[in-house]
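In the current project phase, we have settled on a layout for protein records. One protein thus recorded is set out beneath this paragraph:
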Amino acid sequence: MSPKNSKTREPREEDHLKALGMRVRKWREQKGLTQEQFAPVVGFTRSYITEIETGKRNISFLNLIKLLETLEVDDREVKQLLHDIYAEKEK
């Protein structure tokens, strides 16, 4: 096997977590909420939200559902996020 060229590397888990985190931050900010305001509403600590938004936390599926429901994220936006992640993988 030959080493992979850095330009064609496979997306790593960290890349996916960062993509999710950026989207979560966008959705939260669209609601006009700071992390401090959002934390008690969703039932997470502010530091947990920070770790999600910076891609440093691998959020559980159930916590992701809770977050998406609390932010009232549209199904189409969730599908777009998944599409973007898979499209990046295919590059």
About this structure: The first helix runs from residue 13 to 30. Residues 44 and 63 are 9 Å apart (CA to CA).
